């Protein structure tokens, strides 16, 4: 059975300052040792073939969603491949090898067709027996952050992170909701339960309410937020959020680069910046 994850349209957060945890300091030491080595980007005139980027020429159905055709292509394909070129050599090959296939599909819209589906997500990742397909609605362009989010879902399909392992990083007794909408069909991010987010009660473990739907969404939102926010963002000061980010970075390393061939991927460089900034700000 296919597993389906998608990207919400919007998401903002502003949170209180929380002291950096000891685990983050340890991670900083580890990451700093790898800093200073610039990422190597392949010089490719057209990387679309390398990444198997396709355009939806006709309407199709994927994982309970209707995928609309994209009229014309060009800028969208360039924007996507530019984002994919930021990833280290071997990253996508590792996913392809472990999942059986990896395809990027550009389309003109995504529409949910089943109860529990989102009405019109900006992107969609479908994982099945033939591999992983990442679908991007190009009607409003392709954002680097959306690519980051969906690629996390593709990486998840390869990593198969045990739920119990991720559960150990959550608040005591917490359970993911396991659904994108409530019983009234309202999107998860519009729900009332903001506990353990920067806007609600309890120490922040989640960037927003959407991250509380599924473990895979928690990881994708964390990664997207790390890239979107930068070192100054308040919610990146939460020791629980930093701990989860560090754990996820370690999972990517262990699962997709077992031979240690990567230099410093862009996400590790960003996490290093965040941790350095917080150390500098400590009283
Ligand atoms: Zn998602």
Polypeptide structure, described:
The protein has 283 residues and is α/β, with parallel strands linked by helices. It has a single domain, classed as Collagenase (Catalytic Domain), CATH 3.40.390. It is 35% helix and 13% strand. Strands 1-7-8-5-2 form a five-stranded mixed sheet. Helix 1 (22-32) crosses helix 7, helix 3 (91-99) packs across helix 4 (144-159) and helix 6 (215-229) crosses helix 7 (239-256). The protein is globular, with a radius of gyration of 18 Å. The termini are far apart. The model is unreliable at 9-26 and 32-45 (pLDDT under 50). It binds zinc ion (ZN). The site of zinc ion has 7 residues, from strand 1, helix 4 and helix 6.
Q: CA-to-CA gap between the ends?
A: 51 Å
- Please compute the radius of gyration using only Cα atoms: 18 Å
Strand tally is 8
The residue ranges in which pLDDT falls below 50 over 5 or more consecutive positions are: 9-26, 32-45
> What is bound: which ligands?
zinc ion
Please describe the biggest sheet, giving its number of strands, its sense, and whether it closes into a barrel. Answer: 5 strands, mixed
SS field, number of helical segments: 8
The CATH architecture would be: 3-Layer(aba) Sandwich
- The string of secondary-structure elements, in order, is EHEEEHHEEEEHHHHH
What is the third-level CATH name, the topology?
Answer: Collagenase (Catalytic Domain)
Helix percentage: 25-40%
CATH class: Alpha Beta
Structural class: alpha/beta
Global outline: globular
